[in-house]
Design a protein that fits this description.
Layout (H helix, E strand, L loop, with lengths): L1 H12 L1 H4 L19 E3 L6 E3 L6 E4 L4 E3 L7 E7 L6 H17 L6 E7 L7 H10 L7 E5 L2 H11 L20 E5 L5 E6 L3 H27 L1
Parallel strand pairs: 5-6, 6-7
Antiparallel strand pairs: 1-2, 3-4, 3-7, 5-8, 8-9
Length: 225
């Protein structure tokens, strides 16, 4: 009960989330956009949106991380490599730390998943060093490595981060990408954000709050039935 009260107070603390509820006698939501391919469900009435496919990766603690790790959780996906010293990389790390700070106390509901673009160099021990260096909290933020093809396929076919080379041919390599991807509890893509841009990450923070509010309200409406 105490946890529910904390979440409610959190939601009501932020003015942007108040727009989620409109005083018309019914509950309405500001729905975030869905991204990716969609198709009709077997009932030919509902639409099924693209979801993140199953994956199996290893985190900085040597633990297996799969799609199931994020069941019933919102998460922010990114791609990085530990020896990147560019200003852009530093900004993205700083902004993801801001995401961590904002939602740390509800880390059971909000996660961060950073995939290496250089699995050949970013071993488990290297990821652990990087995690410690940037002061990430392993309960909320995972850095993962694994098979390079799987990481590339996830980026192209699931997170929609890069789909082709400049010449239009399929891209099978992992390239630098500063975008952050917001994934909802059903594994749908709900937003893209430039991780090096403070204003866009502010939008990400607001969109996470909107999703939290929506799930909270839906859960309570189900209890009333």
């Amino acid at each position: 009960m105490a946890k529910k009260i904390i979440i409610l107070l959190f939601l009501l603390t932020f003015p942007s989330v108040l727009y989620v509820i409109l005083s018309t006698g019914k509950t309405h939501f500001i729905h975030l956009q869905f991204y990716g391919e969609k198709k009709l469900a077997p009932n030919v009435k509902d639409t099924i949106y693209q979801t993140i496919a199953p994956f199996k990766l290893i985190n900085q603690d040597g633990e297996t991380i799969t799609n199931n790790t994020f069941d019933h959780k919102i998460y922010v996906a990114s791609y990085f490599f530990s020896d990147c010293n560019s200003i852009v990389c530093q900004k993205i790390t700083t902004e993801l730390l801001r995401v961590q700070e904002k939602f740390m106390y509800i880390s059971d509901n909000v996660k961060i998943l950073s995939h290496t673009m250089k699995p050949e160099q970013d071993s488990v021990s290297q990821l652990k060093k990087f995690s410690t260096l940037v002061h990430s909290d392993c309960k909320m933020w995972n850095f993962v490595t694994g098979d390079k093809k799987q990481l590339a396929d996830l980026a192209k076919d699931n997170y929609m981060l890069f789909t082709s080379k400049p010449n239009g041919k399929p891209n099978d390599s992992l390239i630098h990408n500063e975008r952050l991807v917001l994934i909802d509890k059903e594994k749908h893509i709900r937003g893209f954000y430039d991780g090096s841009n403070i204003k866009e990450v502010n939008n990400l923070l607001d969109d996470i709050k909107v999703l939290l509010a929506e799930y909270y309200i839906i859960e309570n409406e189900k209890k009333k039935k």
